[in-house]
Amino acid sequence: MNRFTLTVAAALLAVVPVFAQTDVNPKPGGDPAPKGPPPALKLAIVDLSAVFDKWVKVKEFTDGLEVQKKAQEAELEAMKKTLQEKVQIRDTPGINPKIRQSAQLDIVQLQAKADYMMKMWNEQVKQLLDEGIAKYYDEIQAEVAAYAKENGYTLVLKMETGLLGTAEDKSHSDEKIARRIILYADPGFDITADILGRLDAKYAKEKAAGPK
Fold it and tell me: What is the domain partition of the chain in residue ranges?
């Protein structure tokens, strides 16, 4: 799992999707209709982190970020090599003062450019992740709602799985524990695989149809 996938999964831990179905519609221009008896409760759970981790659409998104990251690293590595060459020139004993001064100026400019590139890259990645997470979350929630209505579920909850003690990132464990609403659910309630299948099938159709 690359670092972007991990970042996406970690950012999602704070989100708790809930789908609720009711039969009550407000009367136009009047008081809301009286509430009837609630529908029979039918529960399901979705492992949201697993959906984000395995959904093809998200994987392609994070793979694209990884390609950009490698291109950025290659450019920074070339700048680092040039910077080292300038340092060697500047530190050469007995070198002409003008050449030393020119090399020092190049060093300062190269370092400033590298720092700026890293800052801009980090900001760009954060923005892309934030926008991607929000967009894909909305798509997942809509698919969960459609599935729930089609199959008679009245409540769908998010559940985080996996042991925190074996997780790669053990930071902020107290926050992760606080976000885990459900401690246990029978596997029969889990509809994660169904949601993933629907999302992947829908995305395959989108790709086959081509850009709009």
Answer: 7-25+38-209
